[in-house]
Amino acid sequence: MQRTLLLLFRLGIFAWACVYLVAQLRLDESSTLRALVASGGLLSGSSASGLLIVALLMVVNWGLEAFKWRFLVKPLEHISVLKAVAATLAGCSVSLVTPNRTGEFVGRVLYLRPEQRIAGASLTVLGNLSQVLVTFVLGSLGLLFMVMLELPLPVRTGWPLGAVAVVVALFTLVAAVLFLFPQLLRHTLDLVPFLRRFDHHFRVLSELPRSALLTTLALSGVRYMVFTAQFVALLVLLGTDVPLLHMVLAVPVIFLLTTLVPTFMLTELGVRGGVALALLQPLGGAPLTVVAATSLLWSLNVLLPALLGSVLLLLGRSRSSAA
User: Fold this and answer.
1) How many CA atoms lie less than 13 Å away from 19 in the CB half-sphere?
2) How do residues 260-303 score in pLDDT, each as one tens digit?
3) What is the pTM for the complete model shown?
4) Annotated domain spans of the chain
5) How confident is the model at residue 17, as a pLDDT?
6) Is the sign of the CA dihedral 108, 302, 276, 101 positive or negative?
7) Close Cβ partners of 74 (under 8 Å, ≥ 6 residues apart)
């Protein structure tokens, strides 16, 4: 029975991933599909080789994430590198059906022994929290420097900008406290009535040494640098007129705002493109170039991994026992 349910779940995720990705690309053809097609014309022969490097960075990006997850779940179960990569890509596929792609842990824990899945889910949440914390901190620094340099922002100065700063600071503080003191994350999970009975599984959060937390945070930081470099490189390759320094400051703010803005399935790419336009167009970025770079980044870092993850999830062997 359990194997049958898992198979149905895998089939459902595979079908939904295919429908979602096609619908996402066709949702706004004027800004997404045309931008992707136009990007081929914007890229010169020499730029095409640069695009290949950006694509290779996608492998580095998800490789780092797989390594981080394997490192986190090592106290529970030693898994191979290939299995960690498969689990990470499967999680990317499952996350498509959840708000702000927060459901990665569902796909990943299927690659753990059944008795370790709840504990593994809590560690996956902690790993995601480290990535969010890095996004908040570096995005806040980018926003601060943009204000200091008096660069144009979508939010006006005065109380609106102050309100954004307070919200960002509050979220950053909460993320930092929950990550650096994971026993508090355990207590937070216990506040949810139906999760309280799993507290013995969440005990693993309280047993992580500080060195493991710092290593996880460092890996998240390196991964952040990789996909930031991808976005900046795509903007340069597509010929944007935004100065390099301004791009380096604005891209972290884009990642910050897209993390804060709720997205639900088909709105994700639209939100990413809208935020990127709001930040980069006032700095001199042509709308077509900005949308094309955003769409290419999403295609490389989300679309391709999610498609591969859905196939791996469909073909993967269900683990319904400790064997």
Assistant:
1) 9
2) 887 765 567 777 888 899 999 999 988 888 988 888 898 889 88
3) 0.86
4) 2-315
5) 57
6) negative
7) none
- Distance of alpha carbon 286 from alpha carbon 131, whole angstroms: 30
Structure tokens at 115: 């008795």
**Confidence band (pLDDT; 50, 70, 90) for 204?**
very high
Residue 22: other Cβ atoms inside 10 A: 10
Alpha carbons 279 and 38: distance in angstroms, whole number: 21
CA distance 252 to 7: 39
Q: Enter the tokens of residue 262.
A: 């709720």
Phi/psi-derived region of residue 100, left when phi > 0, alpha when psi is between -120 and 50, beta in every other case: left
Q: Which helix (H) or strand (E) holds 133?
A: helix 117-148
Structure tokens at 18: 């295919």
Q: Which amino acid is at 245?
A: L
Alpha helix segments (H runs only) across the chain = 2-26, 33-42, 45-73, 81-95, 104-109, 117-148, 159-180, 182-190, 199-206, 210-237, 244-260, 268-280, 287-298, 304-315
Residue at 108: amino acid letter? R
**pLDDT tens digits, residue range 233-270?**
999 988 888 999 999 999 999 999 998 887 765 567 77
For 181-211, b/e burial (b = at least 16 CB within 10 A) is: ebeebbeebeeeeeeeebeebbebbeebeee
Residue 305 corresponds to which amino acid?
A: P
Q: Kindly state the tokens that stand for 210.
A: 């500080």
